[in-house]
Amino acid sequence: MRYMLLIYNCDPPGPGEPGFEEALARINAFAEECRRRNAMVAGSKIQDESTATTVQVRDGRALITDGPFVETHEHLGGYYILECDTLDEALELATSCPFAELGAIEVRPLFAVPGVDNTPSAAVAHE
Fold first, then answer.
1. What is the pTM of this model?
2. N or C: which end of the chain has fewer CB within 10 A?
3. Helix, strand or coil for residue 27?
4. What is the pLDDT of residues 32-56, one digit of tens each?
5. Burial label, 90 (beta-carbon count in 10 A; 0-12, 13-18, 19+)
6. Which of 123, 88, 79, 98 has the alpha carbon at shortest distance from 19?
7. How many domains does the structure of the chain reveal?
């Protein structure tokens, strides 16, 4: 089953900041462990809320707003999608993620809806 690890309230040091090289090594070690277990599907840091655009369609009309739609105290900073045999394995990996020491990681199973085609673009291009 696939699980999404949503990374909240985590602000690791960036390039050129003190501690960046150590943080990068720990993050890469986590990603390597996920790959070793054949669990890594995807992952990325996302840009902050100021870069967000929210889209809503109401009565056939698109409403596009700069910024996140909902005011929140939680800051979503990134994600991983992991393929794990059990929730326990996903939780074990989330526990070993260095971001869990700086913020919080929400672990949620992904749900495949029967009949919904979520084939990635790359897979379609190769057919």
1. 0.82
2. C
3. helix
4. 999 999 999 999 999 888 888 888 8
5. buried
6. 98
7. 1
Give the span between the Cα atoms of 15 and 17, in whole angstroms: 6
Structure tokens at 40: 């890594």
Backbone phi, psi, residue 42, to 5° = -165, 165
Based on its alpha-carbon atoms, the radius of gyration of the chain, rounded to whole angstroms, reads: 17
Contact 44, 78 (CB under 8 A): yes
Closest CA to 37 of 106, 102, 88: 88
Contact 93, 33 (CB under 8 A): yes
The total number of residues written for the chain in this structure: 127
Q: Looking at residue 65, what is its pLDDT?
A: 86
**Cα atoms in the Cβ-side hemisphere of radius 13 Å centred on 46:** 18
CATH number at residue 36: 3.30.70.1060
Q: Which domain holds residue 17?
A: 2-125
